[in-house]
Amino acid sequence: MKKLAYLFFALMIVSGTAFSQIINPKETAKRKANDRINNGIDRNIDKGLDKIEEGIGSIFKKKDKKTKKSADEDSEEEVVDNKTKTKKKSSESEEEMNEEADASASNKATAKASTKISMKSYSKFDFIPGEKVIAEEDFSQDAIGDFPAKWNTNASGEIVSVEGNSFKWLQFPTQGVFYPEFINELPDNFTIEFDMMISEEFDNNGSGLKVIFPELSQRNAGYDQHFNGEARTNFDIHPLPEGKGISYAWVIDNKNTKTLDNSNEISWNVGEPNRISIWRQKNRIRLYINELKIWDLPRAFITDVKYSLLFATYTNGGLPYITNLRVAVGAPDTRNKLLTEGKLVTRGILFDINSDKLKPESYGVLKEIGTVLKENPTLKVKIIGHTDSDGDDAKNLDLSKRRAAAVKTALSTEFGIAASQMETDGKGESEPSEPNNTAQGKANNRRVEFIKL
Predict the structure, then answer these.
(1) What tens digit of pLDDT does each residue of 35-74 get?
(2) Residue 146 sits in the same domain as residue 258
(3) 384 lies in the same domain as 416
(4) What's the pTM value of the predicted model, to 2 decimals?
(5) DSSP state, 109?
(6) Which of 107, 138, 170 is the last residue of a domain?
């Protein structure tokens, strides 16, 4: 009888331990904590019974788990919601660390060292971003832990830092709709780009991250991502941690008829930001993940319908993240700009931060320019680099010159353009195209010009 009473007492404590995990948890730990309650309590009870029957001591003995120790071994570090806290080493803090780490494991994104990607891998990448940036969102104005000030939602979400990455990211919760209030009606020709990551245990079930183009009049916090009957174009990007995944596309017309419903397999760079590029040209839309074109839909939009932008989630486990959202407008006309007008300005040639290293997604723009120069061997241009106003004036001037030289080198080595056709220069921050007081303004000032000589 005494043994039975002790058994029930132990089971009550085990249950209490499991339920204690959802008292005032972090947003990013909620999902995993509930999963542990719903799916793991039997496992905890079995472990408790085993330990009692075997007489091996307390059922609260710390689980085997890898932890990071400081050099003096007097403190341990844990990463919860991408924030690092240091705790003094004790039996209570060790147990608390393990329980909280379990609860948040699936909601953690970690960026590994970026794999070196060559321009050659983007040889089929034909994405050309719009000429002028009308919206840029890097969440630099938002505090870690807050929902972004210029967005709206019917759920939650928060700005986080990702281990191994310098940017701020918007972490979406498992369910909800989200939209930037500074982006309203989208024109007939636009491009949208953003970086995306997923947490380490993104689930195979449910949806991934939905990118929806709804009617502007319908976009609000009450938008029904499942059954809204108005015209819309939807993409669902559903990567998996093992490097594969699937994307869905469906189109609803203004008569509530589904005119397209299909899926394609995708590849995913695990533990790295993946670049999503979307390009609308009137009724046609294309979507790329990194260098690969996933969708090219010729009848995705209805003429005269005003479309806008909205994101949505309905995941079964794990969380998606985005940053560096850019919307640009205007249909690039490289040939006419260079040959007739004598000046081409592009914001589509991108570099690593404070570096002259070209990003591989610049390939499409460089290829367009290289084609024009190749077909017109007597055409000579001056390549001029420009920066925003962040940082030191002299360093920005030097950086702009090095970036212009890097563009010349790429055009020569990748596309066979004669070095004699190109000169280079840099203006630093001295000739802004617009004020540097917004993310959008800075994005437009970071540009490369090609001047016909």
Answers:
(1) 444 444 444 444 444 444 444 333 333 334 333 333 333 3
(2) yes
(3) yes
(4) 0.75
(5) -
(6) 107
